[in-house]
């Protein structure tokens, strides 16, 4: 397995040498990883990655080679659930008739109450079935099974996009603003959101005024003016991870275009719905969060606000305190969305999901309502409509 790991890293064009690989093997032999996935991940990353620009490539290779070895979030006590329960045993494929037999447990409070009760009662490993926490069953708790409302525990990614809470540790990567656009049309659309001004220090030669002043004075009289630039201020929020993974490319293209077109640009990341904190760097999202209150009080109401996300989630994540899939939020997501809309005069939501599918996902309608129906499809036409809204 270690040899395969080394070869996959080289295949992904990471500059990993044989000396570094042997160093890692020696460290493992000395027990530095202590048979824990977390420890081995950080040990191998320290030994094999010399440039932080390669961290994302390393994470992807590590996740591919060691697929199935899950890491639990610090939000959940692993002592309550034996580690081997969380390993992928089998994917459960049910017919439509079987799925129809499985019903939701009766709402958020009931779901969490039952989870706590079963954690206290269950003593052994369980696979299949419809009650205990395990794998490949119909229970609302566990992994690789099916239930219309469930708490996902120990599963590598989502399958039905319907989990009410996720106890897996999530690692997201930053969007790459150096990506070359597949089309220039996104940039052209963004250029419609322009208001040029000359602000700041006078550091650009004003040739016509210099010629005029020199002729008038009789000696060389150099005149300078501030640089002319787009004075529009943009605040953009990107949804990352989960169901947004298939849309990374178009988000990177949009991000790259925004970085080029707007001098006054600030961006943050969030997951699924806005809550009480956001972050600037996905690698440090747990250690360096930014309070949403601080965002609201840092940027003026003249900023143009853009949210980018598929708005596809459990309705609980929007409507309920504690609805976040990753931690316990004191206030519902819709409360924070309303604060954004009330604080900033111009704000829109761009959705990469085709508009013809929006009616089948209740959460999309809820987000659209919160944004006063200013949700647009992330296409060239939708982007053009969003720019018109922001320009009012």
Any key phrases for this structure?
392 residues; alpha/beta; five-stranded parallel beta sheet; 16% strand
Explain what this protein looks like in three dimensions.
The protein is α/β, with parallel strands linked by helices. Helix content is 35%, strand content 16%. It is built from 14 helices and 13 strands. It has helices at residues 2-11, 18-29, 37-48, 55-65, 96-101, 108-121, 185-190, 207-217, 248-261, 292-298, 316-319, 333-343, 362-370, 380-391, and strands at 134-135, 141-143, 150-152, 163-166, 196-205, 224-230, 233-239, 264-270, 277-279, 289-291, 304-308, 346-351, 375-377. The strands form four sheets. It has a five-stranded parallel β-sheet, with helices on one face. Strands 1-2-3-4 form a four-stranded parallel β-sheet, with helices on one face. A two-stranded antiparallel ribbon has the order 5-6. Helix 13 links the parallel strand 12 and strand 13 (375-377). Helix 2 runs antiparallel to helix 3 (37-48). The termini are far apart. Residues 70-95 and 178-183 have low confidence and may be disordered.
Overall geometric form: globular
> Sheet bearing the most strands, described?
5 strands, parallel
> Which strand order does the major sheet show?
8-7-11-12-13
Computed over alpha carbons, the radius of gyration is 26 Å
What level of helicity do the residues show? 25-40%
Helices and strands, in order, run as: HHHHHHEEEEHEHEEHEEEHEHHEHEH
- Structural class by helix and strand composition: alpha/beta
Distance between the termini: 58 Å
Number of helices: 14
The low-confidence parts are 70-95, 178-183
Number of strands: 13
Strand content: 15-25%
Average pLDDT over all residues: 75
């Amino acid at each position: 397995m270690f040899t395969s790991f080394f070869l996959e890293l080289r295949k992904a064009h990471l500059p990993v040498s044989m000396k570094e690989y042997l160093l890692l093997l020696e460290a493992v032999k000395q027990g530095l990883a202590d048979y824990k996935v977390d420890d081995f991940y950080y040990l191998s990353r320290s030994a094999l990655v010399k440039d932080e620009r390669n961290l994302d490539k390393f994470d992807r290779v590590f996740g591919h080679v060691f697929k199935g070895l899950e890491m639990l979030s610090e939000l959940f006590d692993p002592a309550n659930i034996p580690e081997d329960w969380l390993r992928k045993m089998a994917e459960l494929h049910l017919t439509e008739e079987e799925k129809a037999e499985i019903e939701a447990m009766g709402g958020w409070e009931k779901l969490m109450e039952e989870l706590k009760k079963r954690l206290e009662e269950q003593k052994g490993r369980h696979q299949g079935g419809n009650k205990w926490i395990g794998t490949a069953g119909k229970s609302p708790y566990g992994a690789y099974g099916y239930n219309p409302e469930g708490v996902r525990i120990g599963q590598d990614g989502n399958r039905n996009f319907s989990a009410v809470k996720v106890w897996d540790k999530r690692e997201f990567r930053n969007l790459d603003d150096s990506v070359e656009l597949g089309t220039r049309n996104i940039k052209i659309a963004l250029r419609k959101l322009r208001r040029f001004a000359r602000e700041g220090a006078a550091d650009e030669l004003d040739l016509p005024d210099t010629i005029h002043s020199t002729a008038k004075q009789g000696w060389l009289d150099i005149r300078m003016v501030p640089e002319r630039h787009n004075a529009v201020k943009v605040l953009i929020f990107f949804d990352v991870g989960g169901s947004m993974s298939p849309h990374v490319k178009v988000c990177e293209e949009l991000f790259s275009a925004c970085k080029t077109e707007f001098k006054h640009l600030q961006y943050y990341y969030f997951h699924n719905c806005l809550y009480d904190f956001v972050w600037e760097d996905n690698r440090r999202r747990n250690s360096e969060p930014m309070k949403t209150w601080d965002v609201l009080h840092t940027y003026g109401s003249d900023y143009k606000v853009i949210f980018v996300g598929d708005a596809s989630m459990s309705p609980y994540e929007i409507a309920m305190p504690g609805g976040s899939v990753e931690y316990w939020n004191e206030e519902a997501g819709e409360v924070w969305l309303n604060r954004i809309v009330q604080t900033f005069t111009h704000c829109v939501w761009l959705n990469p999901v085709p508009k013809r599918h929006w009616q089948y996902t209740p959460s999309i309608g809820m987000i659209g309502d919160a944004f006063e129906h200013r949700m647009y499809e992330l296409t060239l036409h939708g982007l053009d409509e969003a720019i018109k809204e922001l320009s009012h």
